Amino acid sequence: MTFRMKKVALTFSSGIVFFLLIVFSARGQDTKPRIAVIGSSTAYGQFNGEYPRDSGYVFKLEKYYKDLGLISGIDNYARSGADCYDGMPSDYVPPEGRPVSSPTRNITYAINHVPKPSVVLVNYPSNHYDDYSDEEIIFCLTTIKNYANDHGVKCYITTTQPRNKMLKPIGDDGLCRMLHLRNLIMETFGEYAIDFYTDIADAGCQIITDYSLGDGVH
Questions:
Q1: How far apart are the first and last CA of the chain?
Q2: Burial of residue 30, with CB atoms counted within 10 A of its CB: 0-12 exposed, 13-18 middle, 19 or more buried
């Protein structure tokens, strides 16, 4: 792994806290905790051919904690291009103009998969957030989390990530819309939010060069 990729892995230090919470919450269980991930290309592991898919953070976290004997594994249902509507429960009917959830990659599928996860990590960091309103983004993420909680599964929501380009920014936020949404997600979900923004964004709300894949998104 290159020096740049090592630095990228270190930016997700909040993930350490996340997995420690999983381990503590699983005490007293007969089996090791299992994690499910739903999300988009960051969780899927998309590097545009520059690195293998298993360079992604989900795969590295799985190997690290499996080697320590702390988890049984991570089921990764993420796909490139997905947005928060993809993760909605299967019985949810979206408003006109919004996509239906993905039947094999949404929260319903993740929760009902065998073995059932102990925790779900929701990682939709930017896709279509230049088009969706604050209210609908938080509604989607809250609905996903509530579905998991209602089925006895803990759920953590990741924040947005910086982008160097936006298709059609809402209002005057421009690139800093991702920072605005990061703050909103942190405020909404509190201890169940994981910050994927702060350590990799510069003062202009763009990706710090050392962490950028070069496509303005990843």
A1: 17
A2: exposed
Q: Which of 200, 197, 203 is nearest to 213 (CA)?
A: 200
Tokens representing 117 are 């996860």
Question: Pick from 177, 64, 57, 67: which is nearest to 121 by CA?
Answer: 57
Q: What is the pLDDT of residues 100-136, one digit of tens each?
A: 999 999 999 999 999 999 999 999 999 999 889 999 9
**CA 109, CA 82: separation in Å to the nearest integer?**
15
Are the C-beta atoms of residues 167 and 131 closer than 8 Å to each other? yes
214's tokens: 């070069």
pLDDT in tens, 29-44: 558 899 999 999 999 9
Question: Is the pLDDT confidence value at 143 over 50?
Answer: yes
Give the Cα separation of 126 and 218 in Å (integer): 10
Whole-model pTM over 0.85: yes
Query: What length does the chain have?
Result: 218
Distance CA 192, CA 181 (A): 15
- Does an H or E element contain 134, and which? helix 134-150
